[in-house]
Amino acid sequence: MAYVLQVDFKMDGPFGDEMAEEFSDLAKSINEEEGFMWKIWTENQETNDVGGIYIFKTKETAEKYLDMHSKRLARLGIEDVNAKIFSINSKLTEITKGPII
Question: PANTHER family per the record (predicted)?
Fold first, then answer.
């Protein structure tokens, strides 16, 4: 069963194409994380909210990544991180064309 990790926090930027350029190495490194399947990057420049929706193969790998990511963000001065882990209802997700079955 796959698991969703939902993360968001405040950041002053960059956003859009600048964010894509500045964080492309980070994005590539996430591909190497144990149990990682995919991520959607989220941003709202009007409210300075950024984050992502991640899919991991197991709850344990999602928790391990969250622990590492939270520590990385803390080193950057970001300590107010909202995060939740959810299991995926595969049957309903399949009906609504979700890419995880």
Answer: MONOOXYGENASE YDHR-RELATED, PTHR39169
